[in-house]
Amino acid sequence: MINREKTGNDRYKGFLPDMLKRLQERLEFQYELYEVEDNSWGAKDPTTGQWGGVVGDVYKGRAHFTLADLAVTSARDEAVRFSQSYFRSGMALSMAVDNPQKEMFYWMSPLAGRSGPLSSSSASSVQSPCRVTAS
Q1: CA 105 – CA 111 distance, rounded (Å)
Q2: What is the Cα 19 distance to its own chain's centre?
Q3: Among 30, 57, 81, 127, fewest CB within 10 Å belongs to which?
Q4: What average pLDDT does the chain have?
Q5: How much is the pTM?
Q6: 85-to-26, 68, 71, 82, 104 alpha-carbon distances in Å
Q7: Which of 65, 73, 71 shows the shortest CA–CA distance to 85?
Q8: Residue closest to 12 by CA, chosen among 96, 117, 94, 127
Q9: Does residue 67 contact residue 16 with C-beta atoms inside 8 Å?
């Protein structure tokens, strides 16, 4: 979650910023969190061949690394190095297929217009690459 009333790294709250803070304490380094310009996870533009988003910032050297719940795809894996996963939920969603007229995500309709973990605005909190500075 991003608190726009605060400044610097204190603006970011949640599991990943907390984990980064613990890494900083143990490994003794300084860092700066920031939001990527295009607010995306990262994809390779098929026309220009340029990477955007979080992956693009790491690929281009603007960020030293990122902590994110980022899907590892074969294309991304060719562009940047990934660590081992730090979390696997094993959770899945299953729905009855009794009505082929229903859209795939109809079950989310009660959540329409509500802010919360499924809203796109909450996802931006994990799209924060890090610049490491000398300690």
Answers
A1: 11
A2: 14
A3: 81
A4: 75
A5: 0.65
A6: 20, 10, 10, 8, 28
A7: 71
A8: 127
A9: yes
Instruction: State pLDDT tens for residues 77-87.
Output: 999 998 887 77
Under a CB-based contact definition with an 8 Å cutoff, are residues 31 and 24 in contact? Answer: yes
Weakly modelled stretches of the chain, pLDDT under 70: 91-135
What would the DSSP string read from start to end of the chain?
-B-TTS-GGGGB-SHHHHHHHHHHHHHT-EEEE---TT-SS--B-TTT--B-HHHHHHHTTS-SEE-------HHHHHHS-----S-----------S-TTS-TTGGGGGGTT--STTSHHHHGGG--EEEEE--
Amino acid at 63: A
Other Cβ atoms within 10 Å of 125 Cβ, number: 20
